[in-house]
Amino acid sequence: MPAFVLDDPTPADPRRAWDRLDQAARDACYDNNAGVPDSAAQVTARNAASAEYRATHPAGLDIAYGQIPDGEGTRTAFDLYPAADPSAPCLVFVHGGYWQRNARADFACFAAGPNASGWSVAMPGYTLAPDASLAGIVAEIGTALDWLTEHGAAHGIGGPIILAGWSAGAQLAALHLGHPAVTAVLAISGVYDLAPIRETYLNEKLGLTDAEIEMLSPLRRLVVRKPMTITYGSWELPALVHDSRNLHALRSAAHAPGALLPVPGADHFSILDEFRRPDGLLVRAAQDLLGDAR
């Protein structure tokens, strides 16, 4: 009987022709705001919902985890949304914004689904580029995980940690799969090879070095054999889709556990709505990761 293979609806990776792309075309490969027609409306709605969630859950906000210089804000701090059970699993969510925009407060509404399913949620902030290098940002996430390990129980969070990140936050999460406190990683709509980023508009604030590209690109790192689910929306920019597939292929070749999870009909922003309710796909993916790690 002949085998039937469905055509892959995802466009080819434009970076295969990188040398033939002009600057505008290279920039467009990573411009999620332009790539999603209603991105501005989605962000406005997200921020409003997050402000409401923070207002109704004020007890654990703005808890510093690092050394904050005098006169600075609370970037290196957590917003904590503990479950009633202090031993409940905790989703640590790292926001995105290409390491140079957004704040943890903008994503509070995505604690709703995990909280409703009985999980704690912890959202760390971090210093944005150009005030910090990418290496410095990566180090801050490590410091945040260290702090949560040592002090989380005092704030009602003592269970196993599933580390999740979205967009640039997925790169930050992937790099910390090896942290001793991390049980597994849920990487959402991430960027996993930094080399092309250096040749786009994003590098103006990042100033990526050769060393950072090699050390901080998950696709260029040794595989950590803890569970990692890699997920993306079917309407993502092709470069991000292929980064996700490439990272999963790299891990599969090393026999590392974890699923590749496309979300049909989701774009770079709407995919996070799967955290808004307890039966959302991303909530279930985190739950499955916890089960896989046990």
UniProtKB/TrEMBL annotation:
<dbReference type="InterPro" id="IPR049492">
    <property type="entry name" value="BD-FAE-like_dom"/>
</dbReference>
<dbReference type="InterPro" id="IPR050300">
    <property type="entry name" value="GDXG_lipolytic_enzyme"/>
</dbReference>
<dbReference type="Pfam" id="PF20434">
    <property type="entry name" value="BD-FAE"/>
</dbReference>
<feature type="domain" description="BD-FAE-like">
    <location>
        <begin position="84"/>
        <end position="176"/>
    </location>
</feature>
<protein>
    <recommendedName>
        <fullName>BD-FAE-like domain-containing protein</fullName>
    </recommendedName>
</protein>
<dbReference type="InterPro" id="IPR029058">
    <property type="entry name" value="AB_hydrolase_fold"/>
</dbReference>
<keyword id="KW-0378">Hydrolase</keyword>
